[in-house]
Amino acid sequence: MPLYLGLDSSTQGLKAILIDPARGEIVTRASVNYGNDLPEYASPGGVLPNDDPLVKHADPLMWLAALDLVLERLRQAGAPLAEVAGIGGSGQQHGSVYLNETFFEVVDQLRPGEFLAAQFAPALARKTSPIWMDSSTGPECAEITAEIGSSLQTFTGSPAIERFTGPQIRKFSKTEPEAYAATRRIHLVSSFLCSALCGADAPIDLGDGAGMNLANLARMEWDPHIARATAPGLRQRLPRLVMGSKRAGRLAPYFAKYGLAPGIPVAVWTGDNPASLVGSGAITQGTAVVSLGTSDTFFAALDSYKLDPEGYGHIFGHPAGGFMSLTCFKNGSLARERVKTELGVDWTFFDRTAFDLTPPGNEGRWALPWFEPEITPLVTTPGLKANFAYDAAPPEVRIRAVVEGQVLSMRRYSLWMGEFQRLRVTGGASQSEGILQTLSDVFGTPVETISTTDSAALGAAFIAANVAGGHPYERLAAAYCPACRTIAPRPDAVAAYQRLLPEFRF
Ligand code: XUL
C-alpha cells in the first residue's frame, strides 16, 4: 500500500509521521530535538544565543542535519520507507535562508557519501537565519510602511511585521550589503528543506509565502513594487511562488541511502500553521484551531479575504485552496513552562489542581507572561504584566492568572475573525484540563481535542497524500482527525470571562 511521509521542521525540532491512508493508520513517527540530539549547533530550543533579546537566529545547517538524522532514525527503526509514495513538509514560518551562486550546483549534485549540512555549508551567503521569534526589524518595518502605506496590508494580508521575511531581508541588505550582494536565492525554512529533498531550487507556497510581506495575495504573485521597496534586486532573488498542494519535484537520488525510492513526488512545502490547519481537520470554515506550541497560534479557514483592522492578525494561503487567518502569540508554552518552573510545581498541579483550587475569573486577577518580546499585542520590552500583586500570591492563583490572561488575550485579538462554532486544540499543552476548560469558557464554545498533537507533521503527510495519491483532504481529516472528546462551556464561567474581556486593551 502506498505510504506518505510528512515532515515538520519546527522551532525546537523536526518531526516525521508516516501514514497509510488506505487503512487510515499512522504507521510510525520519529523526531529529532535540536537541543538534545544536535548539541554541536549550540542551540538549545533551536535558537542561537544572542545578547540582544530582539535578535533570534538559527543555523540553517542544523535543520539539514535534523533531516538526515530523522530519516536515519526511521530507517534504523525499520520503517517501510521503500513503500513511501510521496513526501510533504512544513516549516516554522518566516525564517529565511540566504544562498549564494554555489547553491544551484550543490542542490543539483547531492553526493550520498556526505551529509547535507556539509554539502550546503559553502552555499550559504549568510551563516545564520533570522527566525519567526526575531523582532529586531522595527526600523525596517517603519521604512517599508513609509514607502508602501496601507496597501501593504491590503495586498499582502499583513502590515509590516518584525518577524516577516521582507523586513528581515531589508535589514540584512542594509547591515550586510556585501553578503546581500552575494545572495542569489532567498528561501524560507520550508522551501529550503524542500529544495534539499528535490535536489532542485523549490518554489514557495502561498501559505508560507504570505508570511513574507512580499506576495500579492489577490494576484498570487510576488509584488514587484513591494519587492523594490524592500531591498534592491529582491525580486530575482525569490524562488517561484505557487498555490499550495502542488508537486515541487521528485525525490533526489541522495535519499536512496535511507531506503526511499528516488523519483517519488515531493509536494511543495508549506508553513507549519497552514499544515496544521489541514492536519487538525479544520479544513472548512466554522472551526478555529488553537495550537499550543512554542508560540500559541489561533487560526481558521476563511470564507473570504478579510483583514485585521488592528493589524495583529494575518492572512495566509490555505493548502486546500482559499485563505486562512492567523494570530500568533509568541509567549506560549515556553512562558507556561517558565511559570511552572519558577513556582516549583509539577504539571498535574499546573494543569489541574490549580484550577480546582481557584474560581473561573480568579476574582478579577490576571497576568500576561511576556517573558519574551510579544508579537500580539506588540511588546518590545519583556516582562510579566499583572493587575495584582503577582509575586505575593499563592501558586494556584498565579497559574490561573497566567492561563486566563493568555486565553483572554487570544479571544480579544481574534475577535476580528468572527465567531466560531467550535475550537479544536492541538499541540503539547492540549492535554491540559485547566487550559481546555478555560478555552471553552472564555470563547463560550465547545472545545474538541484530537488524538495527534503533531498536527503540522500530520498535515504535511496529508498534503503528500493529496498531491501524490489524490486523497481528498476531507476524507483524510475524517479518518485521522475525529474529535476525541468535547469540553462544553459552563454558563457561569462564560459570564465571568465576558465581564473581564473589556480589560484586555493594551
Ligand atoms: C506564525 C508564527 C509562528 C511560527 C512558529 O506567524 O510566527 O507560529 O510559524 O513555528
Describe this structure in words.
The protein is 35% helix and 21% strand. By secondary structure, it is α+β, with helices and mostly antiparallel strands. The protein has 2 domains: 3-268, Nucleotidyltransferase, domain 5, CATH 3.30.420.40; 279-506, 2-Layer Sandwich (Nucleotidyltransferase, domain 5). A hairpin with a 3-residue loop joins strand 1 (3-9) and strand 2. It binds D-xylulose. The site of D-xylulose (XUL) has 15 residues, from helix 12 and strand 19. The site of D-xylulose has 15 residues, from helix 12 and strand 19.
Give me the secondary-structure topology.
Blueprint: E1 3-9, E2 13-20, E3 25-33, H1 34-37, E4 57-58, H2 60-76, E5 84-91, E6 96-99, H3 102-108, H4 116-120, E7 129-130, H5 138-148, H6 151-156, H7 165-175, H8 177-181, E8 185-188, H9 189-198, E9 204-205, H10 206-209, E10 215-216, E11 221-222, H11 224-230, E12 241-242, E13 247-250, E14 265-267, E15 270-271, H12 272-279, E16 287-292, E17 296-302, E18 314-317, E19 323-329, H13 333-343, H14 347-356, E20 367-370, E21 383-386, H15 395-412, E22 422-426, H16 433-443, E23 447-449, H17 455-469, H18 473-480, E24 485-487, H19 491-500
Parallel strand pairs: 1-5, 5-15, 9-12, 16-22, 22-23
Antiparallel strand pairs: 1-2, 2-3, 4-7, 6-8, 10-11, 13-14, 16-17, 17-19, 18-19, 20-21, 23-24
Helix pairs in contact: 5-7, 5-11, 12-17, 13-15, 14-15, 15-16, 16-19
The chain binds D-xylulose (XUL).
D-xylulose binds next to α12 and β19.
